[in-house]
Amino acid sequence: MARLPSARRGHLLLTVTTAALIAAQPGALAAQEAESAFTLLGRLVFGWGTPKVAIDTPQAVTVLDQQDLDREQPRSIGDLFANVPGVQAAGASARALGQAFNIRGIGNAEQTSSQNRIIVTVDGAVKFFEQYRTGSFFGDPELYKRVEVLRGPASSTLYGSGAIGGVVNFTTKDATDFIPEGQTGALRFKGSYDSNGDGTVGTVTLAQKLGANADLLASFSTGSSGDMEDGDGKTIQATAGERWSGLIKGNYHFGEAGDQRLTFSLSRTDSDLDKAAVAQTGGSVASYFGTSDLHAIDDTVTLAYAHEGAGNPWLNLNATLSYSKTSTERDNFSLGGYCSPGSYQVLCPNTASYETTALKLENTVEMSRGAWENYVTFGAQLSHQNRFATSSLGALAFHPGGSEDKLGLYVQGEFVWKDRLTITPGLRADRSWLSPDSAAAAAGGTDQSGTAVSPKIAALYELNDNWGVFGSVARTERMPTLDELYQSDGRGAAGRTPSLNLNKEKATTIEAGLTYQTQGLLSEGDSLTAKATLFHNDLTDLIAANPSNSVNVPYFHNIDSAKIWGGEIEAAYEAERWFSQLAYSKVKSKDDATGKTLTDTPAENIALTLGTKFPDQGLRAGWRVQGFSGITTASSTTSGTGYAVHDLFVTWAPQDGALKGLEVNLAVENVFDRAYRNNLSLDNAPGRNVKLSLAKAITW
Q: Which residues does the UniProt record annotate as the domain TonB-dependent receptor-like beta-barrel (predicted)?
């Protein structure tokens, strides 16, 4: 691993020391020790470039790890982001297959088209799915131990041009997360229950060391739930379903000083929803299109090689070969009698999928001179994506098939002067080649190609041991997707046609912010960290569905320009007996042509958590309030009134006695059974929900 600047090595030493302590303890106890050691902004970020602490990145970054996932007990991915400023789920509030991501107003609530404005990865594999009124990410939260959220287009350098909203990185669990120091294996059982919908989940995980240099994990989870109810006691339609997931993951360390590693990961999430809304993202059209049975499978396979180049400043290599496939199958339509070509082909039995194979190579070299510590990362990324669709009437006009080949080349530097000033320039270029399948070509689609370029420069200056200032300027371009280029309504010249003359989307973002960190503020050993960010995003040639239903018009068109601006505050306090957390976000936007607020703009919101600890008993308890203001956007379906929701949680991990090793997480969400709807959700939110999970590991 490339050598870190000394200030960051201090942060890293804290993290590594904590990790060593954690390794000696299983499960929730380890999580509680980790949480007391440093706040969210004190966690390491691996997705920015060289590893660094979140508060030291010149970008808004949040890291969620295992204790956050355990405490939230997420039923769907959207449940994870209550404490992350600027990030929400969009679409449906409670449907596992009806959610997409929204970061700073980027991410569509009603249709999930163009979700590559936010790049999502699992163990380095890029995940992408878009289908009419269906969510974009189907992975089971039980698979993951870590989520990194990098907000803003500065992440485009390492992950791909077009990441206007940012990047969300998921990391699956490892065997070493479950095996205590000095032991070789663990078998862990976990059961969870949700009172709203009578949901149950059971998970069995086997972790085993294979000699001194290898380990293997196998995990299986299965669960089901009935329909949930909102705060008024009304059923939230189509929230029932069944799901199972599995993970096999292995690591092998070898080479000089164990500086090389091979990692293999295979995961699958299989979801079955009977009588699910055809318009899975919800809204008024949910009842208009009726229901169908929906079966979705999400597969991810990665093979990663890392060479840290012990003693060699020119070598810190990472190579990842990945395969991802997400597919849906729909049948048994309640309005199947309306199945017909054109608009109502959506009511025909159909299958749709995305399949992506990718190779990413990246190397970091150290070129330090004098007072400067310098690191330069070079990379190349090659991918091939196929988009498939078919129905009982043949090809799906609203989900055109085709393929995309993409080559990306990038370079990013990190230049550190006297541990105070860090300058991070970056440049990426992606070349794309897109081709329609035979059906899309017959509808008028032709081969397309283009190049997207994303430059940036970011800097952070530490004024003293407490205060720091940071800022960045980033520009990114997003090429149109297969969906945007080739979608039609299936009626030829009598309807909307493929959109072959789309321009690239472009975004220029300026960010500026302050960081603050201190210890011993109110008591010995306590810590306070805070980060405030202002941003302004100029967008041109935004791609959106054409509202016109006129004859022979493109299905998609470019909106001339828009602006998104706002601010975020993230802060956390940790002491021996107390803890608190704050996440605040305000996003404003304007369509320059109409002057209206963009549909996907989230309401101003704040989340405040206060809690207490009883270290000797392994107990933590807390209260969280989330408040959202009212908002009016360009679409009445994504406007909303203000509300506040209260949650309670307790975590308990006995440290001795017969119950040692037991992990208990209890939470009560929406304590006062409030009826409300988030403006990015097209359904009412669930009412009061009591969540309970119990876990116990057997080790040897």
A: 261-671
The answer to whether residues 537 and 60 touch, using CB atoms and an 8 Å cutoff, is: no
The string of pLDDT tens digits covering residues 416-452 is 999 899 999 999 999 999 999 998 898 889 999 999 9
pLDDT at position 381: 97
Q: Which residues contact 547 (CB under 8 A, 6 or more apart)?
A: none
List the structure tokens of 301. Answer: 């396979």
Q: List, for residues 28-51, the tens digit of each pLDDT value.
A: 334 433 443 456 777 777 777 777
CB 226 within 8 A of CB 199: yes
As a whole number of angstroms, the distance between CA 308 and CA 341 comes to: 56
Taking a C-beta distance cutoff of 8 angstroms, is the pair 511, 537 a contact?
no
Do the Cβ atoms of 515 and 531 come closer than 8 Å?
Answer: yes
CB count in 10 Å sphere of residue 646: 15
**Please, is 176 exposed, middle or buried when counting C-beta atoms within 10 Å of its C-beta (0-12, 13-18, 19+)?**
middle
| Residue 299 identity | D
> Which residue, 528, 613, 611, 618, is CA-closest to 574?
528
Distance CA 350, CA 510 (A): 43
Nearest to 127 by CA among 267, 295, 330: 267
Looking at 2.40.170.20, 3.40.50.300, 3.40.50.20, 2.40.10.220, the CATH number of the domain 52-186+230-699 comes to 2.40.170.20
C-alpha distances out from residue 547 to 214, 445, 555, Å = 56, 21, 8
Please say whether the beta carbons of 9 and 416 come within 8 A: no
| 483 sits in which H/E element | helix 482-486
Q: Which residues pair with 189 in a beta bridge?
A: 204, 696
| CA max distance for the chain | 76
pTM here? 0.91
Question: Tokens 């499978």, residue?
Answer: 297
CA gap 662, 70 in Å, rounded: 13
pLDDT in tens, 539-582: 999 888 877 666 778 888 888 899 999 999 999 999 999 999 99
Q: Select the highest-mean-pLDDT range: 154-158, 235-239, 322-326, 638-642.
A: 322-326
Give ∠ CA 43-212-51 in degrees, rounded to 5.
Answer: 20
The DSSP-derived string for 129-194 is: ---TT--S----GGGEEEEEEEESGGGHHHH-TT-SSEEEEEEE--GGGTSPTT--EEEEEEEEEE
Per-residue three-class SS string for 619-678: EEEEEEEEEECCECCCCHHHCECCEEEEEEEEEECCCCCCCCCEEEEEEEECCCCCCCCC
Length of the chain as a residue count: 700
Determine which helix (DSSP H) or strand (DSSP E) holds 625, and give its type and residue range.
strand 619-628
CA nearest neighbour of 261 among 149, 185, 356, 176? 176
pLDDT in tens, 50-99: 777 878 888 888 999 898 899 888 888 888 899 999 998 887 767 777 78
Q: How many Å from the N-terminal Cα to the C-terminal Cα in the chain?
A: 32
Q: Determine the pLDDT at residue 260.
A: 94
- What percentage of residues in the chain have a pLDDT greater than 90? 59
> Quick one: pLDDT band at residue 635, thresholds 50, 70, 90?
confident
Does residue 254 carry a pLDDT above 90? yes
DSSP at 504: P
Q: How far apart are CA 161 and CA 452, in angstroms?
A: 6
For residues 252 and 673, give the distance between their C-alpha atoms in angstroms, rounded to a whole number.
Answer: 49
Q: Is the Cβ–Cβ distance between 532 and 567 less than 8 Å?
A: yes
Q: Angle at which helices 6-23 and 27-37 pack, to 10 degrees?
A: 160
Question: Which of 510, 603, 506 has the alpha carbon at shortest distance from 562?
Answer: 506
The token pair that represents 92 in the structure block: 């449906």
Q: How far is CA 661 from CA 27, 500, 572, 606, 652, in A?
A: 7, 60, 28, 35, 10
Does position 588 have pLDDT exceeding 90, yes or no? yes
Indicate the DSSP class of residue 9: H
